[in-house]
Design goal:
mainly alpha; 3 helices; about 0% strand
Length: about 240
Amino acid sequence: MLRQNPPRISPDIDEPSSQDELSQRGTAGVDIQRELNRMEEMILDSPRIPLTRRTLVDEEHLLEQLDLIRLNLPNAFEEAEAIIREKEELLQQAEQYAHKIIETAQQRAAQILDDTGIVRQAKQEAQQLWQMVQNECGAAQEQTLAEIERLHREAQEELEEIRAKAISEADAIQNGADEYAERVLNNIEQQLNDMQRIIRNGRQQLQQADSPPLALKTPPGSLFPRSSSPIPPKKS
């Protein structure tokens, strides 16, 4: 059943008047939708039978319109198939492009993950290296402090030894100096004693010279008795 109030589309071309015109229009290509609208208008514009829902239709024009549509249906189908094929090709190309984008994105994501793993590994290695350097620095510092302590202790011990040796040598020198001084003083004392004896002898001889000439002559050189030679200082 036809629609009671369909939308009206005015035709762009006049109705065909002959079979030749139908053939020419069929070979030139016709808009099927427009021709269907034209046929619908032909039916709706036809006179109606009063008190009925029937319509008087120009059979010849209606058949010509049907022939026109029938002649152009294969072309329309081909165009539709071409459009469908083109749509499928576009969809296939879009799907391939989408797959390519997805693959590229996955590769990029994998690369980013690899780079992230490399960066994480580099950070871990840097952290381990820093910890190792810290440990080595701490060990080197402790070793250096221990070495400094050992050197300080050895220097202290060596200083004590040098001090003790210096004190011992100073004591030995002091003892030697005391002994030398003792010997020198003894020699001086001996010389003084000899000189006192010489002085006493000289006084006695002078006193005897003043007495009667009974005194014996003193042989020359015997006025002063020989004193003992001083003891030479001992070499230290």
